[in-house]
Amino acid sequence: MNKNQRWTTGNIPDQTGKVVIVTGSSSGIGYETARVLASKNAEVIVAVRNQTKGDKAVQQIKAQHQDVHVKVMLLDLASLKSIKNFADEFKQNFDRLDLLINNAGVMIPPYSKTEDGFELQIGTNHFGHFALTGQLLDLIQCTPMSRIVNVSSVGHRGGNLNFDDLNWEKRDYKAMRAYGDSKIANLYFTYELQRRLTQSGSDLLVTAAHPGWTGTDLQRHSGPMQFMNKLFAMPIEQGALPTLRAAIDDQAQRGDYFGPGGFMEWNGYPVKVSSNKRSHDKTIASKLWDVSEALTDIRYNLN
Ligand SMILES: NC(=O)c1ccc[n+]([C@@H]2O[C@H](COP(=O)([O-])OP(=O)(O)OC[C@H]3O[C@@H](n4cnc5c(N)ncnc54)[C@H](OP(=O)(O)O)[C@@H]3O)[C@@H](O)[C@H]2O)c1
């Protein structure tokens, strides 16, 4: 694609025959990603923790597009049991997975823990997706031209994992820093998974994306941020484009990261962007991998 051209949903070819999971697709960027891929004839699994919200999302997509294949499946990323149930049910019902889009996320909630005792942000945003991906990887790997997309954030730049206290039990909880930790973890996971797959001889592509500043429910825990959304945030249709590009662009390379190309990467059309130097630290990424396997008890079979 010419550098000056804008990447839009018009660049997405027909997706007939493809099976896609989008986590956290009851609202925001996940919903829009699911809607667009369904409109391009992919079979889309709306993977959500709330059945009512999921049903509403599917209804809305079907009201807008005729003859689409969209289905709700329950997935609570704050519960390793729910993740296992979801993966087991999915594997019973599908024999391929073309695209796994790890989109769901929480930002700056009051301090709380997942069912398994992880701090909510790193637990949902990272450990949950690590466990989900590990349990679906066999199926993804046996699907030709498949891809995994992890949704990170500009906020990864504020992340700096403290392995002595990943769950903020020994320090005063700093919500924004914990969010940054979870979002840099998404990038360590992306790059480390890609390295391990490549070393094992797999040609599976792992990419990442961030939606800049997009007006969604993500900022629900911050009044000032909700107010600033009105001034700075992109519409959701545009905010979903980096994720869609990371999922679809056939020029994408291993470990590519896409985000909006405008001011501070807050807005604009999706382009390839760079994450910070810390996110490329292979020692930290490998350590996080080992810790994630140990804490989730999900072992990746990559040799
Ligand atoms: N909006 C932005 O400006 C921005 C910027 C940078 C990065 N991001 C990233 O973009 C992604 C999507 O966020 P968004 O902006 O679209 O926010 P959103 O509208 O709040 O969507 C987040 C989705 O994640 C789901 N979710 C939360 N916890 C979950 C759990 N335990 N299990 C399953 N699903 C869960 C939510 O479900 P419920 O509806 O049930 O709560 C919701 O559907 C996130 O990873 C976020 O970090 C967004």
Would you give an account of this structure?
By secondary structure, the protein is α/β, with parallel strands linked by helices. The chain has a single domain (14-296), classed as 3-Layer(aba) Sandwich (Rossmann fold). The protein has helices at 28-39, 51-64, 80-93, 120-141, 175-199, 223-232, 236-239, 241-248, 282-296, and strands spanning 19-23, 43-48, 69-74, 99-102, 147-151, 205-209, 257-260, 270-272. An 8-stranded mixed sheet has the order 3-2-1-4-5-6-7-8, sandwiched between helices. Helix 3 packs parallel to helix 4 (120-141), helix 4 (120-141) packs parallel to helix 5 and helix 4 crosses helix 9 (282-296). The model has no long low-confidence stretch (mean pLDDT 96). It binds NADP nicotinamide-adenine-dinucleotide phosphate. The site of NADP nicotinamide-adenine-dinucleotide phosphate has 30 residues, from helix 1. NADP nicotinamide-adenine-dinucleotide phosphate binds next to helix 1.
Mind sketching the topology for me?
Elements: E1 19-23, H1 28-39, E2 43-48, H2 51-64, E3 69-74, H3 80-93, E4 99-102, H4 120-141, E5 147-151, H5 175-199, E6 205-209, H6 223-232, H7 236-239, H8 241-248, E7 257-260, E8 270-272, H9 282-296
Parallel strand pairs: 1-2, 1-4, 2-3, 4-5, 5-6, 6-7
Antiparallel strand pairs: 7-8
Helix pairs in contact: 3-4, 4-5, 4-9, 5-9
Quaternary status:
single chain
Number of individual domains: 1
What is the CATH topology descriptor? Rossmann fold
The number of distinct β-strands equals 8
Q: What CATH architecture would you give?
A: 3-Layer(aba) Sandwich
- Distance between the amino and carboxyl termini: 35 Å
Give me the Rg, rounded.
18 Å
> Looking at this structure, what is the CATH superfamily?
NAD(P)-binding Rossmann-like Domain
- The number of helical elements comes to 9
**Widest sheet: strand ordering:** 3-2-1-4-5-6-7-8
Mean pLDDT across all residues, rounded? 96
Q: What is the molecular shape?
A: globular
Helix content: 40-55%
Low-pLDDT runs of 5+ residues are none
Order of helices and strands: EHEHEHEHEHEHHHEEH
Regarding CATH, which class? Alpha Beta
Strand content: 5-15%
Q: What molecules are bound to this protein? A: NADP nicotinamide-adenine-dinucleotide phosphate
**Main beta-sheet annotation:** 8 strands, mixed
Assign the structural class, choosing from mainly alpha, mainly beta, alpha/beta, alpha+beta, or little secondary structure.
alpha/beta
